């Protein structure tokens, strides 16, 4: 038997039915277009993610990738901490052990005395605080001038600062060392002096770029209103710009302090006196006279200040890196 209720072919449809089909197709296309505009295209469609197997596969892959990357970044730190608690024979054992058989926590106290880490940390902290103050004073003023004061040839100066970012630091190390040994015009000799650390850190093109980008996002109307009230430019910087710029100032501060703690070659050249060495240089100078686990213990102690700084200011780092990227 033939089903008489079947839908007629498109050729046999009446004009009214054809018009209805066209309208329905247009409405569906509009809905799909509206949905596409409100959603970001991804490798996996949202419809597949809503399915039971789609969610399982997605979360399995996500957790796997996160675990792999976490292990890659955390494993060196774990290996350093566990290696410090191993004996010399266990460190040289092949294949190596993932966890010390007999953990020795007294090695950290031995490393503190052998390396005189207290003095090294005090020296490094002193250099870091001075470099932080000088860097903020110079970089903030330079970024404010380039962003809001608009000096003559400001774009050329900014381009010159960006050009310095393309030069490897090792290339300018010899000219910088010659300059520190005999400062032009003044004739100062800055070896074994904290000024040899502070002066090169003071002007940093990358920090100036970050600060300028943030200052550019501050509305000019706010500054113009202060100028109408007769507020001088330096007071605008201190009372208006700096309170708003706390996120980016935090990022620049962290970058400066971390750079001082991890720098090795430059302090090795300009601070040859053993009583004025930084933590990185001091550990390397004594490494030949101690055991390998004591070296690792000293490295663990030297890493603690920067780890603490990161955990306390990680929110400021993320906020400052994205601050000033969007206007409005």
TrEMBL record:
<protein>
    <submittedName>
        <fullName>Carbohydrate ABC transporter permease</fullName>
    </submittedName>
</protein>
<dbReference type="GO" id="GO:0005886">
    <property type="term" value="C:plasma membrane"/>
</dbReference>
<dbReference type="GO" id="GO:0055085">
    <property type="term" value="P:transmembrane transport"/>
</dbReference>
<feature type="compositionally biased region" description="Basic residues">
    <location>
        <begin position="21"/>
        <end position="33"/>
    </location>
</feature>
<dbReference type="Pfam" id="PF00528">
    <property type="entry name" value="BPD_transp_1"/>
</dbReference>
<feature type="transmembrane region" description="Helical">
    <location>
        <begin position="125"/>
        <end position="146"/>
    </location>
</feature>
<feature type="domain" description="ABC transmembrane type-1">
    <location>
        <begin position="121"/>
        <end position="313"/>
    </location>
</feature>
<keyword id="KW-0472">Membrane</keyword>
<dbReference type="InterPro" id="IPR035906">
    <property type="entry name" value="MetI-like_sf"/>
</dbReference>
<feature type="transmembrane region" description="Helical">
    <location>
        <begin position="153"/>
        <end position="177"/>
    </location>
</feature>
<comment type="similarity">
    <text>Belongs to the binding-protein-dependent transport system permease family.</text>
</comment>
<feature type="transmembrane region" description="Helical">
    <location>
        <begin position="236"/>
        <end position="261"/>
    </location>
</feature>
<feature type="region of interest" description="Disordered">
    <location>
        <begin position="1"/>
        <end position="34"/>
    </location>
</feature>
<keyword id="KW-1133">Transmembrane helix</keyword>
<keyword id="KW-0813">Transport</keyword>
<dbReference type="InterPro" id="IPR000515">
    <property type="entry name" value="MetI-like"/>
</dbReference>
<feature type="transmembrane region" description="Helical">
    <location>
        <begin position="295"/>
        <end position="313"/>
    </location>
</feature>
<keyword id="KW-0812">Transmembrane</keyword>
<keyword id="KW-1003">Cell membrane</keyword>
<feature type="transmembrane region" description="Helical">
    <location>
        <begin position="57"/>
        <end position="79"/>
    </location>
</feature>
């Amino acid at each position: 038997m033939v089903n008489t209720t079947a839908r007629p072919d498109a050729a046999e449809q009446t004009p009214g039915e054809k018009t209805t089909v066209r309208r329905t197709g247009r409405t569906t296309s509009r809905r799909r277009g509206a949905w596409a505009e409100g959603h970001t295209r991804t490798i996996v469609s949202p419809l597949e993610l809503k399915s039971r197997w789609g969610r399982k596969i997605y979360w399995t892959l996500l957790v796997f990738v996160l675990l792999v990357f976490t292990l890659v970044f955390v494993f060196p730190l774990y290996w350093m901490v566990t290696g410090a608690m191993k004996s010399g024979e266990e460190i040289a054992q092949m294949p190596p052990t993932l966890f010390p058989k007999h953990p020795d926590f007294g090695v950290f106290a031995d490393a503190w005395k052998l390396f005189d880490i207290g003095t090294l940390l005090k020296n490094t902290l002193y250099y870091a605080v001075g470099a932080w103050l000088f860097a903020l004073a110079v970089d903030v003023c330079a970024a404010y001038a380039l962003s809001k004061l608009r000096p003559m040839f400001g774009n050329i100066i900014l381009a010159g600062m960006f050009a310095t970012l393309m030069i490897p630091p090792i290339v300018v190390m010899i000219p910088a060392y010659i300059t520190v040994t005999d400062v032009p015009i003044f004739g100062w000799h800055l070896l074994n002096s904290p000024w040899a650390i502070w002066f090169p850190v003071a002007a940093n093109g990358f920090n100036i770029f970050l600060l300028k980008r943030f200052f550019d996002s501050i509305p000019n109307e706010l500054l113009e209103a202060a100028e109408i009230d007769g507020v001088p430019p330096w007071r605008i910087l201190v009372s208006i710009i700096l309170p708003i710029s706390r996120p980016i100032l935090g990022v620049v501060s962290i970058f400066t302090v971390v750079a001082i703690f991890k720098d090795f070659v430059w302090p090795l050249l300009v601070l040859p006196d053993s009583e004025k060495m930084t933590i990185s240089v001091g550990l390397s100078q004594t490494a030949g006279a101690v055991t390998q686990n004591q070296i690792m213990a000293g490295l663990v102690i030297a890493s603690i200040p920067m780890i603490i700084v990161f955990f306390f200011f990680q929110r400021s780092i993320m906020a400052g890196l994205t601050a000033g990227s969007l206007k409005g």
